[in-house]
Structures are given as structure tokens and as C-alpha cells.
Amino acid sequence: MSRTQPSAAARSPAPATPRPSPQPAPDPEPYRVTAEFYDLLHRSRYRRKAQRELAALARSARAGILEVGAGTGIVTEVLAESTSVPVHAVEPARAMRTVLLSRWAGSSPMRRHVRVYPQPVQELRPVDPVDLMVCVNLVDGLAPPTRRLLWSRARALLRPGGLLVVDRTGAVPRRPKPLSAVVVGDTRYEVTVVAAPVEGSRRLRWTFRYTVTTAEGAVREEQESFDLWPVEEAEVRAEVASAGLAAGPPQPGLLVFRR
Ligand SMILES: C[S@@+](CC[C@H](N)C(=O)[O-])C[C@H]1O[C@@H](n2cnc3c(N)ncnc32)[C@H](O)[C@@H]1O
């Protein structure tokens, strides 16, 4: 379970309770801690990347787009801005979905255009046919049987000729790595990440540590861990091929497959 615990301000006495362990187990309610900080710390980079890598593909969609693991909707928004076909956003974590749904509150065109599904992809009932399926920052987070099910869902949900796109994963941060920092008013928010093997398993436990600091010092430290199942690109290609999809047009930063 992730730990949520205010850290001692610079001048405060040491906290009475022990500091959280460096690698807390994943929270039974995933993204409970992370959702608060996700857009603030990741939106500008993820949005630029989605505009660069996905907007043109979304513009070519003629039937519909399905995004699996939409999170807070940073990528969904870029997809929806780039097309007039329906965009189906699948997001099972309530904390992330809260931000995702709130994103459309101020825009009735977007509300007509985007549909949000609260179940995990393995429980998703058939949606209208789609010709683009997008999985960004998702695949490592799925246990191998769920990941293989994702490929067979892609085969079932995509129209013939439709594309499945999966982003390429980056390097594993073996030491704490600062990812992003943003100032709001007089308060600085930052996130670092570190990954470590989970004993006796192929999983890696990624721990995100959020620090909130004012001029007086750290006012809050929170962390959340996620267990990921690293998978090589070759393995993804082989699994997707055995689900019945072919290699698609090469695209920088993405693995692309065609139904
Ligand atoms: C790291 S976030 C990425 C969110 C978004 N794609 C982005 O790049 O900003 C991964 C998301 O996948 C969702 N997810 C995890 N397992 C899933 C599943 N089985 N089906 C659908 N979504 C899932 C999580 O709830 C989470 O919001």
C-alpha cells in the first residue's frame, strides 16, 4: 500500500511515526496519491509528445478511436481535438477518471465526442467499430495474461485495416530520478521516480515520490508504488502477431500494428 504522510517541515521535530519505506507495496486503490499531481507534473510533456506522435494518426481515423488506460485524459484530449469521430476512453482507476471526466465539464462539444468507460479493458463490452486503438504508458502496467488479452481485444475491436499503437518504454530509473517540477504560487511540486526488482518475480516496483515545498521547507511528501511487468519490444511484436495483427507503418516513438 502506498503511504501518505506529511513530512516534517524544516524546523519541525522528527515525525513520531517512521518514514515510509522506500518501496511501499502498490496501493489497493491505484493512483489514489498520484492523481492529484499527474496533470500538474506531466501534462505539458505528455501533451507535446501526443501532439507529435498521435495527432496525425487521430486525424486519419474515420470510424472511431479507442484509448485504453486514458488516465487523466492528457492524450485523450489531443486525440479528441484532432478528430470528429467518437473517442472512447477506458479508465478503471477512479482517482484518474475523476480528473478525466472533469476535463470535459467545460466543453459540450467534447462531451458529445468523448465516451468514458470505467471498466478495465478485459471487462470492456464491445464499442462501436474503431480504426485506431491507442495504448500510451500502459503496457508495462499489465500482468502478462492481461497484456495478451489486450492484443486479442485489439483484434476484436479494430476494423480491418485499423491501427493499434503502443508507445515505446524508456529506460528503467535504477536510482532516484527527478522527472518534473512545477511552481504554483509560492509552492513547488516535484516528482522523482525509482524502480527496483520485486524479489522472486519478474516485476519491477516503480515508486514515485512527490514533494511539496514552500519557502519554509517541505510541507508534504507523498509516495505511491506501481508494480510493472517489463516487456521487450520483440516480445510485444511476437504476442501481437500471434493475436492476428500485422506490423504497421513505422512511426517514431511508437510500435504500430495493423488489423
Ligand atoms: C501511467 S497511466 C497513463 C495514463 C495516460 N495513458 C497517460 O499517458 O497520461 C496508466 C493508466 O492505465 C490504466 N490501466 C491500468 N490497468 C488497466 C486495464 N486493465 N485496463 C484499462 N486501463 C488500465 C491505469 O488506471 C492508469 O490510469
From TrEMBL:
Bias (Low complexity) ranges: 1-14
Alphabetical list of CDD domains matching this protein: AdoMet_MTases
Composition bias type Pro residues, residue spans: 15-28
UniProt keyword terms in alphabetical order: Methyltransferase, Transferase
Gene Ontology BP, a term: methylation
Pfam families: Methyltransf_25 (PF13649)
Keyword Nucleotide-binding belongs to the record: no
Region of interest: Disordered: 1-31
SUPFAM superfamilies given in the database record: S-adenosyl-L-methionine-dependent methyltransferases
This protein's name: Methyltransferase domain protein
Native source organism of the sequence: Actinoalloteichus hoggarensis
